[in-house]
Amino acid sequence: MKDILRIASRLTLCATLILGASCDKITSTAEKILNERETATSRRTLEKGTPGPIEHIDTAERIEAAKLITTEDPANHEIRIFTAEIRGAFDEGKFDQLEKIAAELRNSRALFPNGSWKSKVFYDALDNRFNQGEDFWLTDFKTYEAWEKAFPNSLTRRIGLINMLTEYAWHARGNGYASDVTRENHRLFQERLAMAAEIFGETRNHPDKDACCQLAAMTVALGQGWPKKDFQTLTKEALAIDPTFWHIYPSHCYAMLPRWYGEEGEWEKIALEAANAPGGLGDEVYARIVINLSSYYGNIFRESRALWPRTRDGLAILSKKYPTSLEFPSQTARLATMGNDRALAKASFDQIGEKYLESVWKKPERLVHFRTWAETGKW
User: Fold this and answer.
1) Average predicted confidence (pLDDT) for the chain
2) Radius of gyration of the chain from Cα atoms?
3) Which residue, among 68, 110, 112, has the nearest Cα to 325 in the 3D structure?
4) Band of the pLDDT at 134, cuts 50, 70, 90?
5) Quick count: other Cβ atoms within 10 Å of Cβ 116?
6) pTM
7) Contacts for 109 with CB less than 8 Å, ≥ 6 apart
8) Residue 305 burial class via C-beta count within 10 angstroms: exposed 0-12, middle 13-18, buried 19 and up
9) d(Cα 141, Cα 5) in Å, to the nearest integer?
10) Residue 351 CA to its chain's centroid (Å)
């Protein structure tokens, strides 16, 4: 990785040239795929009275929504504190502390009360910078340079840097359509991804193993348009490290949506294989995949081949396994509604009462509308 951080630092200065540039637009094959990243999936018309993507919120439901109590999942509270601690140690250059924590998490496979891997959140925390301005990115690069001097063979540092370079690449590109990306921004996007890919290559023979490394590489692979078989190899490598590292599956299945590598029904097949895999998490992982991919559909059970019975069983496992988490009763209420399971939906709404989790419902009116269907059968 000779001089890669210094090169990366110089590349950030090129961003100032963008202000006066009037470059041609980029329309490469990979960029055309990226166009669909923020595009909503098609939404079909559903039978009257059945749960679907169109929600007609009436006045009474708006009033009920206003009465809900916005609540935070206890797990998210713990995650926020942990994130502040890790990012604080990074900002203060406490690399020995970061190395020790990362090693402990790799060995313990510790989880938060919602089942999220602490090692995954650790790397998210490293990338949780206060500001997205260029000066803050340059400061982070200097911190990683200091980390490299202190721990030149660190796998932890490399994974953090892969994530940072990937985020920095998207920072240059933006989330708009390919036709709106200038040639200079596209160049920065590709150069930063190339550096992330180079660092990932350095980890392949590292004596330490961490499935978060393959997870980080997945975003690089999508941005660079790796061959499908190479992307699939990342999942195999992560599961070889630990077959219970469930975070890899939602990312894999996302990439197997038709907008990316997959064909119709492909991600659903992978979800079933994940649930049936020896040594894995069974239907728990199936439910997690559906939870993560449901935002790409109006009603995932009508618009894909996702199976409500397997999702239902997985949600039951999650609720029992992580009883203090408020997320899973809410997800059960939401997905049971989509799965046309009124009995379970009503029981779940009775359980959550007036507690509203924005991370699950996005809008309080949606919770009330779904609850109305569970109680009356009217959509």
Assistant:
1) 88
2) 22
3) 112
4) confident
5) 19
6) 0.86
7) 117, 119, 242, 244
8) middle
9) 7
10) 27
CA 3 vs CA 6, 12, 95, 159: distances in Å: 5, 15, 20, 17
Q: Which two tokens stand for residue 252?
A: 């894999």
| Closest alpha carbon to 350 in 329, 336, 319, 365 | 329
CB atoms within 10 A of CB 307: 19
Whether pLDDT at 365 is above 70:
yes
Structure tokens that stand for 124 in this block: 């998210």
- Distance, in Å, from the CA atom of 145 to the CA atom of 168, rounded to the nearest integer, reads 16
Is a pLDDT exceeding 60 seen at residue 306?
yes
Q: Which residue has the tokens 């408020």?
A: 326
For the chain, give the number of residues.
379
CA atoms in the 13 A half-sphere facing the CB of 257: 24
Q: Which run of H or E residues covers position 355?
A: strand 355-356
Cα distances (angstroms) measured from residue 355 to each of 67, 315, 334: 10, 18, 13
Q: What is the sign, positive or negative, of the torsion defined by CA atoms of 253, 310, 38, 215?
A: negative
Q: Kindly report, residue by residue over 176-201, the tens digit of the pLDDT.
A: 777 777 788 889 999 999 999 999 99
